[in-house]
Design a protein that fits this description.
The chain is of the alpha/beta class and 287 residues long. The chain has 10 helices and 8 strands. The chain is elongated and about 70 Å long.
Length: 287
């Protein structure tokens, strides 16, 4: 049996202080030996210092990341790929690397090239909102959320245990899976909803806003997500997203045909099936 890691005596560095990195920092603050925050934006650094959640905050990882036992990469996917490439020259010692990227295959492939002193673990917390700034960081953001974790061949039991302990301290629920399954499932549960919200928003003329109610607001909320972040997500999960769009298009065509034909019976049956499916989908969690 793997011994539970001593997280309280671990030095943690979080590289990227947007909503996810900032919220994880808030959740871990005071529960580890030291907590370093890194972000290139001077305004974010200023806010992070004012939060008093960190032992140290810096604009760059040089000179502040080398002693970390756990490095968390919390940036858009293609920025994480650059962070991974920089790690060998920044950190000379053994350490666990956990990323929070929204897609996993390209990140895990890049992690495979890291020197053996690094123990990489892929991660993705399934939580958040349309905001992307440290200003909206929330210590409770991860509470109760599934947190996907993916191992690589040279991830040791000790490294996996440290990453899992970090997840549990944040309040999230660790869920181990492979990168392929993660990217396929999130294409349907996360990336497809964003694309639909984006297309729906583009379909609504601005002059109709006086009749825009909570239904439209909730249906288009994801379209307010950071375009830069979502660009990385869509392009690094392009194949599974295109498959998901085809499934959606088939169902949309079916619904359109039912409406066009004014087939009350068939339309009612299909609407009821969807109602039941939605109820079942969220039966074990929050709607």
């Amino acid at each position: 049996m793997t011994k539970e890691p001593d997280f309280a005596n671990s030095d943690v560095a979080i590289w990227g202080l947007g909503l996810m990195g900032g919220s994880l920092a808030m959740a871990l603050s005071g529960k580890c030996a030291s907590l370093v925050g890194i972000d290139p934006d001077p305004q974010i650094v200023e806010l992070a210092v004012a939060s008093q959640a960190f032992t140290c905050v810096a604009n760059t990882p040089q000179d502040v990341i080398a002693d970390a036992d756990l490095i968390v990469l919390a940036a858009p996917v293609r920025a994480i790929l650059k962070q991974i490439a920089a790690l060998p020259r920044l950190h000379p010692n053994p350490c666990v690397v956990l990323d929070l990227g929204s897609t996993k295959r390209q990140i895990l492939d890049a992690m495979l090239a890291l020197p053996a002193r690094f123990e990489p673990i892929g991660g993705h917390p399934m939580c958040g909102n349309e905001h992307s700034s440290f200003q909206h960081a929330d210590a409770d953001l991860f509470v109760g959320a599934p947190f996907a974790l993916v191992t690589l061949p040279h991830s040791s039991a000790k490294g996996r245990a440290l990453a899992e302990t970090c997840v549990k301290i944040s309040g999230a629920q660790p869920l181990w899976m492979d990168a392929e399954t993660h990217d396929q499932w999130t294409a349907l549960t996360s990336h497809l909803p964003y694309v639909i919200a984006n297309a729906l928003t583009a379909s609504i003329p601005a002059d109709t806003s006086t009749l825009a109610g909570p239904g439209l607001r909730s249906s288009t909320r994801l379209a307010a997500s950071s375009p830069a972040m979502m660009l990385d997500v869509l392009l690094t999960n392009r194949d599974f997203l295109l498959d998901a769009l085809q499934i959606f298009r088939t169902n949309l065509d079916r619904l359109e045909n039912d409406i066009r034909r004014e087939n009350d019976t068939v339309l009612a049956e299909n609407l009821q099936k969807t109602y039941n499916a939605r109820t079942a989908l969220f039966a074990k969690g929050k709607a």
